[in-house]
Amino acid sequence: MTDRHPTELAPRTKVPLAAAVLTGTVALYISLVAFGNITDFGTNRDFVRHVLAMDTTFKDPDLMWRAVSSQVLQDAAYVAIIAWETVAAVVLLAATALWVVGARRGSIVRARRLSTVGLLMMVLLFGVGFLAIGGEWFSMWQSKQWNGLEAATRNLTVAGIALVVVHLPGAAGKQGSGE
Q: Rounded CA gap, 151 and 154, in Å?
């Protein structure tokens, strides 16, 4: 006999369901970001150009040597960001599908592994790329017009929370699984 309500999920399905939903949410988000950057290339290209050029910062001479003024290099950085976003989207979409398929088969170890890869890609993009490199190296925090730190922090937070949930005990589908 159980004290669970008949409509309540079994304990072993709660964490995988949460991991699937969070992975899917991040997958949808980064897919839309990549799609937007591909179909409206100019908007965020201008953002990347201004951040790398450091032309809206305090222009401290001790920091301005870091600025990248070559539009070719700026655009190459932007294309690399879009490529990274696209690969992360594909990985996270595949991981979401594996959560759904794996839940039916009782094994979601592959979903957890692929989610980890995709979510770490998000952490690297927004934590290292935008917060550390853009925010600190290129002093994006100094710009009123071209400051993406709030959005990057939001994205890093959501990906980090999803990563933690993916690695909670029980997320691999079996209690005590060392995966």
A: 5
